[in-house]
Amino acid sequence: MSSNNASADSLSLLLFTLRSGKLMAINLLKVSEIIPCPPLTKMPESHPHVKGIAVLRGLSLSVIDLSRAIGEQPLLDPDGGCLIVTDVSRSKQGLHVQAVSKIVHCLTTDIRPPPYGSGKRSYITGVTQVDGALVQILDIEKVIHGIAPTRVDTSPEMLSREDAKLLANARILVVDDSQVALQQSVITLRNLGVHCHTARSAKEAIDRLLELQGTPQQINVVVSDIEMSEMDGYAFTRTVRDTPDFAHLYVLLHTSLNSTMNTQKAHTAGANAVLTKFSSPELTQCLIQAARTVAQQGY
User: Which domains are delineated in the chain?
Assistant: First the structure.
């Protein structure tokens, strides 16, 4: 493996604890800063999992009581601990945690899917081992969605005749290990009158591509998450590009990370485009562009 590939497959995790002391982690790219828990202003009409509002350099920041949000016991010192300030899916929020442990570096191949039977109530996207200890990786998107769900317009999208015709010829596979994010994309596609196939991992996506190859439903557009256990979106894109039957596929990488940070990395991996979650209108425009490119190439 080249050094570029090794770099693309590495991941930095910020480890932290809640009251139980078990190690949890969040992708460091989703963290903008870590601060002691500041004074909070209570908001009477806010969600019960929101502790209050902090003022950070003149800007208001919602602070999530992470323990309550994921069903854990409350912190022993409700005013202590620290805030992990996250920048995810176009918004910033503070996560109130017991303590931050350290930053570790690992390969995405070292991250495994959540244990079988974790269920829909689970707030982890994967697990890994650090110094012999099990670390659970937080599904921050699910936490945020549970407090402030992203609104996805369920009314049919008005398209020009040309765009509707282009999309009718797009055979799309959506790949995302987050059920919430997957559903958002599927709803957007449904509103466009487009049927799509789905996969919950890169490996499942490869199986689906192989299964549909040579059939009338053969995929020509892939919309893939970047952060996935075992094989991330970059590695998945490189695999697609290295496979002759799939090298022509249009690949849109759809990420909760700030896309400006990932554009170069995405293009280096072979992606056609990258988009930050979640905006139905922007996803629609990206899909129309994908369908136009596919039509021009005769796929």
Answer: 3-147 (2.40.50.180), 161-297 (3.40.50.2300)
CB count, 10 Å around CB of 70?
Answer: 21
Residue 114's pLDDT band, with cuts at 50, 70 and 90, is: confident
Return the closest-CA partner of residue 156 out of 111, 198, 194: 194
pTM given for the model: 0.82
User: If you average pLDDT over residues 45-71, what whole number do you get?
Assistant: 92
pLDDT, tens digit, 9 for 90 and up, residues 81-98: 999 999 887 889 999 999
Over its C-alpha atoms, the chain yields an Rg (Å, rounded) of 20
Residue 90 to residues 141, 157, 180, 257: CA-CA distances in angstroms? 11, 23, 16, 8
CA distances from 129 to 79, 110, 113, 134 (A): 31, 8, 12, 5
